[in-house]
Amino acid sequence: MISLRTISHYWILILALCLSFVGEAQAIRKYHPWNLKTRSQPDAQAGGWFINLGITGARAKIRIEDPKSLLITYVFKDTPAQGHLQVGDKIVGANGKAFEVAHQFGFGVSVFGYEGPMKALGHALEESQGTLDGKLALDVIRKGKPIQVNLQLPIQYGSFSPSFPFACKKSDLILSELQSYLLNKQRADGLWHEKPHINVFAALTLLASGDPKHLPAARQAAKAFAQLTQQKVSYESLACWKYGLYGIYLAEYYLLTQESWVLPELEEIHRWLSRAQMANGGWAHQPAYSKNLSGFGAINIITLQAKMALALIQRSGLKVEESKLRKAHDFVERGTNALGYVWYKDGGKSNLSYADLGRTGASALAHHLQPNGGEIYRRTVYKNARFIGRNPKTFPDTHGSPLLGMAWTALGAWTQPAMFRKLMDENRWYFALAQCPEGTFYYQPNRGGNPQDYITDPRLCASAVTALILSVKNKNLQLTGAKLVNLPFTQVKLIESKIITKPEKKTPKRKGLFPGLKMNFEQRSLDIESQICLDQGLLELVACTKDSKEHESIVVIDAKPKHIHTALLLLGAKPGNPALRKQVGETEKRWVDIPPRGDPIEVFLVIKNSKKEWVERPISEFIQPSDESTDEKFEKNSKKKKFEHSFVFSGSHYLSKEEKYICDLSGHVISISTFGDELLCLPEIQSRDAGLLQWKINSSYLPPKGTKVTLRLKIKKPSK
């Protein structure tokens, strides 16, 4: 006799075969991010940025032409899926339920959410590890034929409790394993990586445990962060991220341990952040130094991290100027709409839509931590957290660093426990799907598609963030629900001449007036020694300096941008200006955008062809339109479908007081997006909004990452 379950299984497969020919959900991305790769093992062997299918050990992707299935792309050895699932299999249902909803894995607010195969399989994994004793029944189409694949999953985790991470054995086991993982991943210098958010989330996880055996690692991290910060304002790339994040951790560390050596370090960070704050009350990627030269300008996520740091520093017993905190609040308030959603920067108050929630969570947390502020701040906390609870679907679906956004979203929601409950209940499927067979967690592809955390290590940051979120059950940190404290005021004096700084590595001097550059006066060209730093992904730059924007640039250079500027002058090129914002009008003052200008410069790469011969290729051959763009104007303008290789010599800027060349500090040597401090840029202002990124790498001719090449600049003859 044929069982009802078997009949159900075949009906699911017949329905799936029919639906596989229906082209739905055109918003699904066709190529990106599947073709992105990481060098971090074991994920490098999977061959692309694919969806992790929980503890099965399989990876998959979703295709435009078949949005109701998961196409298997890789199966790890010694996992439940090995020997059962095959590359090319299509999963169309699980545990007797067909994937009936087309996946919304798209780019843009209109396709937020994960309804579809990912969410359905995540719930099935939870069901299998709980009530089904590890049995996972998958409806699969293999080579056009329907079959059923039965997997036996490990049962030691079970399923999440209704109150997870509280009173939850699965959460307890996951957290214990992740803490051990992070201890083992910590480097001898106390760091986990060069990226501050990865370092801070990993360190906060160990600190939040309350376990004395984790304290030495937490202290080692605190010492490392202290060495990397000082009171003297520096203009390195993304400096405000570092000081805000490291300030948060060091203050939390001091509030728990009250080790006296930390207070002077907190005072240094306090002074740095105070000096770096912009006139409008916000913080940008880099400190305030000019009206036009701070990356994207002041934005809310960086402002809120700085506000968190200053609030915790104030709770540590140091004096923080209240007017600066109020200005920061006012900046955020101008970007917060009536619903409680926080936009990218100030000025979004009238926009009653919403997008990803990281900034909104950060706002709830920053205002919650602030000792002063009264009823206004309490209302802000409530409004932010309530919005998260009412819109929990965007939790893993953000741009920039989605993992950072997830951390702040969850901790911000935790300021109102009922909202945290709604967020976690909606997203328990996500945690089930992101967990890997050996217990770590994986950075799943998402709306933003920013590969920086994936390329760095798909498991390191994801594991740290997951562990930090689960750590709220311990309530040991101010960030994770501990009773808020205010330590007595302590006067800390610092001596400017005794600033603790990280010792600079001495590098041997290279011969030549301009190291790494070669001028050809006859051809009016300049050759720059370069190295391919990215061979796939979205682009904001053609060239950058070391330790700046390698994750969004084709090549990285050793030469100093100011030397390139000088060499171009010697070759006869005339600089203009990058894009600027200028105030006009005497009675009714307003700001207008000034486009970039300067002599035209053509950009080429000199690479080896298949015959190992050096050939010169225009940079346009290595850049193509991105299928990620949501800019309708860009899509309709067929003239912009091909990237141009002609730029303008905008010339960046000098800081008059400090006599520093801004491009040396920012690293924006040849830009595609407009930053306002680039050496060379496109002739028009280009948006840097994540939803408008228009260009990506064409890897057809580009050498692999790490290859040494020559970046050639040619001064274009002016048209007669």
How would you describe what is shown here?
- With 720 residues, this protein is an alpha+beta fold.
- 32% of the residues lie in helices and 17% in strands.
- Strands 8, 9, 10, 11, 16, 17, 19, 22, 23 and 25 form a ten-stranded mixed beta sheet that branches. Strands 1, 2, 3, 4, 5, 6 and 7 form a seven-stranded antiparallel beta sheet that branches.
- Strand 1 and strand 2 (58-63) form a beta hairpin.
- The longest helix has 19 residues, at 239-257.
- It is globular and about 75 Å long.
**C-alpha termini separation:** 88 Å
Largest sheet: 10 strands, mixed
Instruction: Please state the CA-atom Rg, rounded to the nearest Å.
Output: 26 Å
The helix content, as a percent range, equals 25-40%
Instruction: Output mean pLDDT.
Output: 86
Count of strand segments:
25
Structural class: alpha+beta
Question: Low-confidence parts lasting 5 or more residues at pLDDT below 50?
Answer: 1-27, 290-294, 497-511, 628-640, 688-693
Helical element count? 19
Shape: globular
Strand content: 15-25%
